[in-house]
Amino acid sequence: MKQWCQRCQGFRCICQLATQADSALQWQILQHPTEAKHAKNTGRLLATSLGVRPVIGEDFSDHSALQSLVHDGTPQALLFVQHPLVNNPIVDNTTHALNSLQRIWVIDATWRKALKMLLNSSLLQQLPILTVNSTTKWSVRSAPSEQHLATIEAAAAACQLLGEPETGATLTRNFHNWQEELSRFRPD
User: Fold this and answer.
1) What residue ranges do the domains of the chain occupy?
2) Interatomic CA distance for residues 45 and 37, integer angstroms
3) Using one digit for the tens of pLDDT, what is the confidence trace for 145-161?
């Protein structure tokens, strides 16, 4: 019988792939329930790398602890792609605006489900959007475009943008190592 790993929160332990990534930022990972069960989700790798626990759900509008975080006065943003249906303000990519951010919210879900989570959650609609300009290196799952990044890729790009290049590099290495591990189990 497989043992549950308390650190990485999975039956298939990924701890050896998740080098600790030290970050001065506060990370809040919101994970869709189906993504939490998906073998190829990178949110678990991100959470393990950063030493945080994701909150699992679809609509966080009535989640009192998360409501408190949104309204505690901490400069924060939701890491998300620009989309015509999303009306959240966009964080100005000036140095001052970026340097003031202290908490980053991340949705871990398929791209379609992530958009649905944002549109259906009044809590998430209160957060400004932080966008990153990067292209995916994701070889295991399909994406709508090169700008649709895996969860850990988006977080790594955000770290680069927010002045934490070492953290971003560690997350990128962890992602690369994780993809190599997955490729060992795929037929050529």
Assistant:
1) 23-134+142-183
2) 13
3) 556 688 999 999 999 99
Match 């990370």 to its residue by tokens.
Answer: 27
Helix (DSSP H) and strand (DSSP E) numbers for the chain? 7, 5
Q: What percent of the chain has pLDDT over 70?
A: 84
| Arithmetic mean of pLDDT over the chain | 85
User: What are the backbone angles phi and psi of residue 172, rounded to the nearest 5°?
Assistant: -65, -45
Q: Write down the residue that tokens 């993809």 correspond to.
A: 179
Contact 66, 60 (CB under 8 A): yes
φ/ψ region of 22 (left if φ > 0, alpha if ψ in -120 to 50, else beta) reads beta
The answer, yes or no, to whether residue 165 has pLDDT greater than 80, is yes
What CATH number does the domain located at 23-134+142-183 have?
Answer: 3.40.1280
